Amino acid sequence: MIQSLNIIPISYYLYFCSVLFSIGVIGVLIKRNALLILMSIELMINSINLLLAAFSAYLNDPAGQIFVFFIMVVAAAEVAIGLAIVVLIFRTTHSIDINVLNKLKW
Amino acid sequence: MMFTKYIFYLLSILAIYSALMVLISRKPIHSVLYLTLTFFAIAGHYILLNAQFLAVVHIIVYAGAIMVLFLFTVMLLNLNKDERSQKPMWVKAAAILSGMMLMLVLIAVFRGYDIQVISNPALNQLGLVKNLGNVLYKDYLVPFELSSILFLTAMVGAVMLGKKEQI
């Protein structure tokens, strides 16, 4: 059953997901477009989903994949609300630059 | 078995390249299309893990629903122009530096990490629809029903936010 020489090591998935997550973090930090920030958040969510599915498959536990399913549900709801808010911001300020949104800052 | 390793490398490089292109592209619509490419590469990873149900759901939800929503927003708001207002250069440099440091720390933490792998993902039947459906409707029935309430709430919220007249 255990063929540790023949399967992809779990650490490869850890490295790959770390890189993808860091790219998402960099995107959130450098972008000013609200739409691109939402996209970077999607990247981070996807890297975590892949890691959960990988651990679930390697440890033979279906709970991880069920959890990925629920994360997808929440992500879909989050994107729907987030894009509605982006449209609302665009309608009031005619821009989706997040630096316009500093009225509540101080 | 070396074959799956090559597929893994190919999909990883494709995913990382297109994720970088999401950030590098000047136009938002190119970013959306590159993000779709990333999602397809990750769906390939799910198939490689023999999580077929997740792969199909991932393609339907992300490439089918979320990306269409993003594309509609970009096109309806007519946002497809170059980003002129960038952040200052030092903010960008600091952001990239701190992101690289996060990546370095994560990789250093995970280096040499090796769990006792107890199953081969290519052989077990874990991610098939039959198995996951059994688990979902036996052990996780209440969260599944609650997620439908979450969707209803999100739908009501999106419609309320998108309405033209103020409430």
Outline the secondary-structure elements.
The complex is a heterodimer of chains A (106) and B (167).
Chain A: H1 10-30, H2 34-59, H3 63-93
Helix pairs in contact in A: 1-2, 2-3
Chain B: H1 2-24, H2 28-48, H3 52-76, H4 89-110, H5 129-138, H6 141-162
Helix pairs in contact in B: 1-2, 2-3
How confident overall, as mean pLDDT of chain A?
87
Specify the helix fraction band of chain B.
Answer: over 70%
Strand elements of chain A, count = 0
Low-confidence stretches of chain A: none
Largest interface: A-B, 74 and 87 residues
Net shape of chain A: elongated
Question: Which blocks of ≥5 consecutive residues of chain B have pLDDT under 50?
Answer: none
Number of domains of chain A: 1
What is the overall pLDDT average of chain B? 87
Number of domains of chain B: 2
Estimated share of beta-strand residues of chain B: under 5%
CATH architecture of the largest domain in chain B: Up-down Bundle
Strand content of chain A: under 5%
Subunit organisation of the chains: heterodimer
* Approximate helicity band of chain A: over 70%
User: How many strand units of chain B?
Assistant: 0
Task: Describe the overall structure.
The complex is a heterodimer of chains A (106) and B (167). Chain A has one domain: Helix Hairpins, CATH 1.10.287.3510. Chain A is 74% helix and 0% strand. Chain A contains 3 helices and no strands. The termini of chain A are far apart. Chain B folds into 2 domains: 123 residues, Four Helix Bundle (Hemerythrin (Met), subunit A), CATH 1.20.120.1200; 40 residues. Chain B starts with a helix and ends in a 5-residue tail after the last helix. The mean pLDDT of chain B is 87. Chains A and B meet through α1, α2 and α3 of A and α1, α2, α3, α4 and α5 of B.
